[in-house]
Amino acid sequence: MFKKILASLEDPNRPLLGPNYWLLTTMALILPENFKYKVFRIVIHEMGCLFVTTQFMELFVIGWDLDLLITNLKYSMLSIICTVKANTFIFWQEHWRDLANYISEADKHERNNKDDARSKIIDSYTKYCRWITYLYCSLVFMTFLTVVTNPLIQYWSSSASYRKAVNNGTEPFPHIYSSWTPFDKYTSPGTWIQVSLQIAVSVYGSSVMAAYDSTVIVFMVFFGGKLELLRERCKQMFNDIVSGVSEEDATKIIQELHSMHVLLIK
């Protein structure tokens, strides 16, 4: 079953970027063509920015309580990184699309014109990219579970007197993040509204991080693989020199290598 799920993420049009492109489109880092859906996805991203703003607003409420201050900054710094990644991806959407399309086309060209030596390079970087993507996503998922369940673990691992104090309201309810709200977040229903909101934000943030980071790593791995493929092509450029290479064939090979080099530099 697990293999079927992973297989469903593969895309014949993007043999290298299948799972990564699925992550990008699912998390709306690659925006849909439909205008209404596009606006809706952008609004979701900007709501993430709004939540980060409330985290910094909470700093004025906290004051100079060092423990609360460090706890707030620990998560708000990570939140800033997440929202910057999401918004820069959207702002430079066309550049990211061009990069993904180039990698897909260049990768397909190599797969369609491979020999034994180049096939080993392609299989090696493809396997490596899959491991990177799936292991990193698993790491982010485990981090998400740890962050979300941290208040619950703190609650149940504390003394009975602390749990009683939380239940009767004499101790503040432990939240996932430290953020400002226009309502009382320590009493019901404000507590559960805040908890639901913070879980949703955690899902959003971890998904964006998984999609963005794993894709960028795969992009860099591909460029390394492409350089290896170019080196192999250069080694094979005049492999029939004993029997002679026609001027036409030599010109064609050099033009192909030059074209690949120009696109890679771009």
Can you give a write-up of this model?
The protein has one domain (about 20-235, about 245-265). It is mostly helical. Helix content is about 80%, strand content about 0%. It contains nine helices and no strands. It is elongated and about 90 Å long. The chain has helices spanning about 1-10, 20-25, 35-60, 65-90, 95-110, 115-155, 160-170, 190-235, 245-265. About 20% of the residues are buried. The longest helix has about 45 residues, at about 190-235. The model has no long low-confidence stretch (mean pLDDT about 85).
A few lines on this structure:
InterPro entries: 7tm6_olfct_rcpt. With 266 residues, this protein is mainly α. The chain has helices at 2-8, 18-26, 35-62, 66-91, 93-112, 116-157, 160-168, 190-236, 247-265.
